[in-house]
Design a protein that fits this description.
GO terms for molecular function: hydrolase activity; RNA endonuclease activity. It comes from Candidatus Acididesulfobacter diazotrophicus. This is MBL fold metallo-hydrolase. With 503 residues, the protein is an alpha/beta fold. The protein folds into 2 domains: 311 residues, Ribonuclease Z/Hydroxyacylglutathione hydrolase-like (Metallo-beta-lactamase, Chain A, 4-Layer Sandwich); 182 residues, Rossmann fold (3-Layer(aba) Sandwich). The chain is built from 14 helices and 21 strands. The radius of gyration is 22 Å and the shape is globular. The termini are close together. The relative contact order is 0.15.
Length: 503
């Protein structure tokens, strides 16, 4: 068995791992790279999609599913296996991404043409993209680290006018035909009898329907953690534990630290909200549309029911998050069992103060509220989305607060604000950062260092298991590697496309 990582190798995003044995290849995830320093890698898959026989999708986050349409465009003919919620959520995520990429492409094209008009018209370029939207077949990773890829300070890509779209909505719809969402937790499934390939997934406790994967080909096996969840969150279950395998690939996003407890993080959130609303300000919460938003709504309802939430307006300003919340409500069997009754009897995300805004004009109306509002909108890392407009109207006012509740990748606007930038640029305008900036990491949907070690320690036959660290920044992986060494784990950090032989 040989394994190569074409993403999430010495970086956090872009999850993509290929397992080969004889004449068969199985891929685990096919996600987009995210962050200014990484996005240039998306244009080249680095492998031939025609040579991949099966894809196992651990969950529906963009950095795990975002390049699937490129895989199909490149000639992948196989099936994509996952859980039912993963398929439902990935469908929304990929369609939303295709829409945003097209909008950004048009915006950047017009901007470039104004400065450097050419004979090539927008219409001709867009038409060319319909027939050939990405150079993805038989491409290698050569020079990927040296490609130029500019990102403006609002997080929007400023690609060359001749750059091509990675994919469009039609490509997404074609990819949906390949999904086979039949995987169930703790239920081994043979995907290829001829080559003796079996898959068993267990609950990763990360987001709705998320899983970690044990792939067995013949007498060799490998476990891929996907993303493991932060324990004791209100909606999804705690992660399950692995049994044994010849190789284990484990994420290390927070391999260098421990989170605050979820209970402490709720108290911190409530204190910030009370202080800001009672002080005549607004609270901005840049949030991932999936899981994080639902956690926040759930907690806000808890505050409301206990009488601790100040009277305010709550705006969920994200059509994607609204649609995802609907999918959550259709899949109660994936919730924590101790919360199941609450989900069965009523809508745990429904709050009298809450207004959901789908229409862009409704979103603009929010900015008329100079105080007394909690605004939840994407994107979580401020790489785009409606929250950028709310930053423009709110970030310069000292009465306001902005609360980050998730990981901020290097090169993102969110990361710069968290690291203390005093002025940012949004839609060409410089905005002073006068609002109070908070980071609450207990809402993270990723396991912390202690939880990762707990998960690893459940492995049987540890002395015979090879551990590989993925999904982490270099420095964090090195810290985690040293942390687990005294426990008997001699971990290795694979590089991009490096071939690992599992013996």
């Amino acid at each position: 068995m040989k394994i190569q990582s074409f993403g999430a190798a010495k970086t956090v995003t872009g999850s993509c791992h290929i397992v080969k044995e004889s004449d068969v290849s199985v891929m685990i995830d096919c996600g987009l790279f995210q962050g200014k320093d990484e996005e240039s890698k998306n244009s080249n898959l680095g492998f031939n999609p025609e040579e991949i026989d099966y894809l196992i999708l651990t969950h529906a986050h963009l950095d795990h599913c975002g390049r699937i349409p490129m895989l199909i465009k490149g000639g992948f003919k196989g099936k994509i296996y996952c859980t039912k919620p993963t398929f439902q959520l990935a469908r929304l995520i990929m369609l939303d991404t295709a829409k945003i990429m097209l909008e950004d492409y048009k915006h950047n094209l017009k901007r470039r043409l104004r400065y450097n008009p050419k004979k090539t018209t927008e219409e001709n370029i867009l038409n060319s993209n319909k027939s050939n939207s990405a150079h993805i077949k038989n491409e290698t990773h050569q020079n990927n680290h040296h490609n130029t890829h500019n990102t403006n300070e609002s997080g929007k890509n400023e690609s060359n006018t001749n750059a091509e779209l990675l994919y469009n909505e039609i490509d997404v719809f074609e990819s949906l035909d390949h999904f086979n969402p039949i995987l169930a937790y703790n239920t081994p499934f043979v995907i290829d009898e001829k080559h003796n390939i079996a898959v068993e997934i267990q609950d990763a406790g990360h987001i709705l329907g998320s899983s970690f994967v044990k792939l067995t080909i013949g007498d060799k096996s490998a476990i891929f953690s996907g993303d493991l969840g932060n324990k004791n969150k209100p909606i999804v279950n705690n992660f399950s534990y692995p049994d044994e395998a010849d190789a284990v690939y484990i994420e290390t996003t927070y391999g260098d630290r421990m989170h605050k407890s979820f209970a402490d993080s709720k108290v911190e959130l409530l204190n910030i909200i009370q202080k800001t609303i009672n002080g005549g300000g607004n609270v901005l919460i840049p949030s991932y549309a999936m899981e994080r938003t639902q956690d926040i709504l759930y907690v806000l309802k808890e505050f409301y029911k206990s009488g601790e939430l100040p009277k305010c307006k709550i705006f969920l300003d994200s059509p994607l998050a609204i649609n995802i919340t609907d999918i959550f409500l259709r899949n109660p069997e994936y919730f924590r069992k101790d919360e199941l009754q609450l989900f069965t009897n009523n809508n745990p995300f429904e709050i009298p103060y809450l207004t959901e805004t789908r229409d862009i004009e409704e979103s603009k109306e929010i900015n008329k509220f100079s105080e007394g509002a909690i605004i939840i909108a994407g994107s979580g890392m401020l790489t785009g989305g409606r929250m950028l407009h709310h930053l423009k109207h709110n970030l310069w006012r000292k009465e306001n607060s902005i609360i980050f509740i998730g990981y901020q990748a290097r090169g993102t606007l969110g990361r710069r604000i968290v690291e203390g930038d005093k002025t940012i640029k949004v839609f060409g305008e410089h905005i002073d950062v006068n609002a109070s900036v908070y980071t609450i990491n207990g809402f993270s949907s990723h396991a912390d260092q202690k939880e990762l070690i707990e998960w690893l320690s459940a492995l049987k036959n540890q002395s015979k298991t090879k551990i590989y660290l993925i999904h982490g920044d270099d420095d964090k992986m090195e810290i985690f590697k040293e942390k687990i060494k005294p426990l008997g784990f001699n971990a290795y950090i694979p590089s991009y496309a490096e071939e690992i032989t599992v013996e």
